[in-house]
Amino acid sequence: MKSTLLKLLSNFWVLKEKDVESYYECKNIDKELKDFIVSKLGLRFYATSDMVRLEKVPLVPRKYMGILDFEEPKDYVFFCLVLAFLEDKGKNTQFLLEDITQYIRSNFPGEEIDWTMYSDRRSLIRVLKFCEKMGLIKIDDGNQELFMERVDVDVLYESTGLSKYFMRTFPKSLVEYLSVEEILNSEFEFTNGLSDQITDIKRIKAYRGLLIDGIVDFECEAPLYYIKKQKTTILQDLEKFVPELELHLFKSFAYLSVEGDYKYTYPDDSNLCDVLLLCSRELLERVEKGELRLSPAHDILEISLDHFKLIVEDVKKKYGHFWNKEWREKSTEKIFEELLEYLQLHNFAQTNDDGYLVISPIFFRIVGEYQDYETNSQLSEKDNSNEKAFEDINVDGGFHFEDEQGK
Q1: 227 pLDDT tier (thresholds 50, 70, 90)
Q2: In whole angstroms, how far apart are CA 170 and each of 11, 38, 185?
Q3: What Pfam families does the annotation carry (predicted)?
Q4: Whose CA is closest to 260, among 241, 277, 275, 245?
Q5: Of the N and C termini of the chain, which has fewer Cβ atoms inside 10 Å?
């Protein structure tokens, strides 16, 4: 059974309309858990007659933390304008698509929106579909998809009244901040919407890094040091509030793992992650042979993009006959581009100015292989279904990583 805190962490919010049991479970959390949320995470907890929400604030903002349904900056602008439009709309208030388009045209900053442009209509529909998915609006009549095909389409919507709880609040107006850093630092001016200033910033950052980001690495030196020094207390808190999570602590990073099927975890069951697991194993094998070297300081791997592409090509030659038709037919260049995009998006690797790929040690914690591959290299010929079984292998501290947990 999933713990209450994990439900709050793994969902943007819990809506009464969609899950009554979880709603009441999360709404009626005990004082001990509330105190943990405030004192250890420094986060705001909201409970209304329709929803419960734990506001999530990461230690380090990452690209993958954006709204994955959106494709361009204009989507975010449209979304903010839709939220502003909904601000004075109470629960069950109806409105038309035309009302939204007129509001956006009147308030869009810097340029005039022309709804005859397909790209603008498509952008708005992405936003409205996201609003519907998140429970901000409902469709009472009509088909909003038709708006992408032509302008003269109208749809009747209904506000759920939840939009006012979607955006986070700040100690002062956003226009008063001069930089992103100021906005991030303002998180530690107040806690849980109260006037009490957060005093133990190191503790808050360490716990947020683990429970919100899922990882704290050497780039966050102070939080990582805190985790190492307070390992026992953190382990006790995890066992008490989120027993599903397991702490893994190493010299240059710490992360949490979870068993079971959860959204936004790595690796998932996609073919892309399968290939990444194979690439991770291939890279580690070359480290073992001395062909590649991890940096002594933080166990990172620097490899040229051309060299990494050759690794991808070798993996495809070696294992490609196990893959499904889509991935077998992809070119090495296409596979390389997709893997690189995923690695950078999820902060497993970044490219530096010298054209090298700098791979984080967390990427090597899980590798993949086809079971029985070494003893039966003809497996694909005997199994026409091309199904494979992956074995996840934890690469522990004795070989590549110095395991703080084992000291």
Answers
A1: very high
A2: 22, 16, 11
A3: DUF2398
A4: 245
A5: N
pTM: 0.82
* Long-range Cβ contact pairs of 112-118 (< 8 A, separation 24 or more): 115/151, 116/151, 118/148
Sole residue written with tokens 């003893």: 375
May I ask the CATH class of domain 73-164? mainly alpha
Q: Omega into 267 within 30° of 0, i.e. cis?
A: yes
- Which distant-in-sequence residues (6+ apart) come within 8 Å of 387 by Cβ? none
- Decide: 292 and 311 in contact? Cβ < 8 Å: no
Sheet containing 45-47: which strands, arranged edge to edge?
14-15, 51-54, 45-47
Cα separation, 101 vs 124, in Å, equals: 9
- In sequence order, the 6+-apart residues with CB closer than 8 A to the CB of 299 are 250, 251, 252, 361, 364, 400, 401
Of 181-185, 324-328, 350-354, 362-366, the one with minimum mean pLDDT is 181-185
